Task: inverse folding
């Protein structure tokens, strides 16, 4: 029995190890795993039933984008955690602990550090000021058309790169766990994503996230408990064995082996921390709850679930070091042996959970992208607020289908592309283009439309160019001899640039429009605090 549990654990962790390099290399297709496919079909059937139920409740734009604002803080906290705990979290971070030890845990802390910013600085104001997307906040007292266009462009850029990373990961993962072809995997994920979002909207997406989060937390806990049972539930004993078996030895317990220099480490930390507070699919979830109090609860619950899961990942990573070190025949040549694939119901469940993480995350991303296209660009910029709800919903559904098709095509095109740089770019853009404008719009009276536009586009262009000129893309992907930018992470340079440009341009803007925008801050501040405008607040 213990041997089978070890094999099941490795069945989850071995594919993660293939993600541990700088890029996802071409994985080898495994024999068809009927157990895993059956478990996944069960999960899909359940979520499609939820989508059918949600479709009957999705009648208005508010239902489609925010589930009518009827999600509780606890439910939304689970859904946010589900959005955040992606396949990269489950597999990539486990692999990072397996290969780099404590450095992998420090990487997780950088991810986690963004939550207090959202909890204390943003959650309440997001709920009070916004309606459907974070562009509602950035454009609250500014020029609607110009600011919404900028916010939508940066949001769609983040969404597209995140979608590509998830789709490429899905294809490679399914080759390993399910034994299906890469292209088939992309079509399955893309089709299901389109069904969830197009018919069920935020209601279906939320419940898919909740179910996936519960499965992931339960599966991870089970694996961690079974792993710890092999060491008498002694963390000290497990760490001692891991150190004795790992090539790094005692360096496994010390930081410094992951990143080449302090600049890269600082830039990565800033990108992950502030990028979290600028991800459109995370920010959109704060509009699904009834009030600001529930928004704060959402972040608190999500923080607890994510923190707990990161510690589970730490245990799984160190357990993998020992099990693989003691049983090298389980992991040979970067592929799973037949014995592991046939690990039974446990590996089938964990495989389905791994795939479910991708389905849930891409659904949230597609919904955020569809909202940017329909609510921000079509309804507010093209139709200038004159679009009916029926029109907006129709555009949203077409946008969801379009994003699904784009994700499939890009997933095929970037099959052998470096996923690490796409994820870094997504966080870098979120930290450089979305976060500065968003936080300044909520807290700085001096922000003007010209400043927001200049700073937002400066952060967006700088983040993209710096990643393009880095070694990850300029040398590894494009084949040039030497990188034009010496670091792989852009946030340390592009985020301060966005703040600086926004500040300088806003300060230099003395137009009548700018003066009116500064005067309107007082009303925005009152609404951010109370949920009512100045006139309404006086009557309450």
Result:
């Amino acid at each position: 029995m213990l041997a089978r549990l070890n094999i099941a654990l490795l069945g989850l962790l071995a594919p993660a190890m293939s993600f541990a390099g700088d890029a996802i290399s071409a994985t080898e297709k495994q024999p068809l795993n009927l157990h895993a496919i059956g478990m996944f079909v069960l999960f899909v059937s359940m979520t499609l039933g939820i989508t059918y139920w949600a479709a009957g409740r999705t009648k208005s734009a508010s239902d489609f984008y925010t589930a009518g604002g009827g999600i509780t803080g606890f439910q939304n906290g689970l859904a946010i955690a589900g959005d955040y705990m992606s396949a990269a979290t489950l597999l990539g971070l486990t692999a990072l602990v397996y290969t780099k030890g404590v450095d992998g845990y420090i990487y997780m802390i950088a991810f986690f550090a963004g939550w207090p910013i959202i909890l204390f600085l943003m959650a309440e104001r997001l709920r009070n000021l916004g309606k459907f997307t974070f562009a509602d906040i950035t454009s609250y007292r500014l020029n609607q058309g110009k600011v919404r266009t900028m916010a939508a462009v940066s949001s769609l850029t983040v969404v597209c790169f995140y979608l590509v990373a998830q789709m490429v990961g899905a294809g490679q993962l399914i080759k390993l766990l399910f034994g299906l072809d890469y292209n088939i995997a992309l079509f399955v994920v893309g089709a299901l994503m389109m069904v969830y979002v197009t018919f069920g909207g935020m209601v279906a997406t939320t419940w898919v996230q909740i179910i996936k989060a519960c499965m992931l937390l339960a599966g991870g806990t089970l694996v961690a408990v079974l792993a710890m049972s092999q060491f008498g539930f002694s963390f000290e004993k497990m760490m001692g064995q891991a150190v004795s078996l790992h090539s790094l030895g005692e360096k496994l317990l010390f930081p410094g082996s992951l990143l080449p220099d302090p600049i890269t480490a600082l830039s990565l930390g800033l990108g992950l921390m502030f990028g979290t507070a600028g991800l459109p699919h995370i920010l959109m979830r704060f509009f699904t709850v009834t009030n600001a109090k529930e928004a704060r609860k959402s972040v608190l619950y999500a923080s607890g679930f994510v923190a707990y899961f990161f510690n589970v990942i730490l245990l799984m990573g160190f357990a993998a070091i020992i099990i693989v070190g003691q049983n090298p025949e389980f992991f040979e040549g970067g592929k799973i042996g037949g014995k592991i694939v046939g690990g039974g119901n446990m590996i089938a469940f964990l495989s389905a959970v791994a795939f479910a993480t991708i389905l849930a995350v891409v659904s949230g991303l597609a919904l955020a992208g569809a909202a940017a296209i329909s609510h921000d660009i079509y309804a507010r910029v093209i139709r200038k607020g004159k679009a009916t709800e029926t029109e907006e919903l129709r555009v949203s559904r077409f946008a969801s289908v379009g994003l699904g098709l784009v994700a499939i095509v890009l997933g095929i095109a970037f099959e052998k592309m470096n996923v690490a740089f796409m994820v870094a770019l997504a966080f870098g853009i979120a930290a450089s283009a979305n976060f500065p404008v968003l936080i300044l719009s909520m807290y700085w009276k001096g922000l003007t439309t010209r400043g927001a536009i200049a700073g937002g586009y400066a952060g967006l262009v700088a983040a993209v160019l710096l990643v393009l000129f880095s070694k990850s893309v300029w040398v590894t992907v494009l084949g040039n001899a030497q990188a034009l930018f010496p670091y792989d992470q852009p946030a340390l340079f592009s985020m301060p640039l966005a703040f600086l440009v926004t500040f300088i341009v806003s300060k230099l803007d003395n137009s009548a429009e700018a003066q009116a925008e500064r005067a309107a801050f007082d009303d925005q501040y009152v609404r951010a605090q109370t949920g009512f405008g100045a006139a309404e607040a006086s009557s309450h």
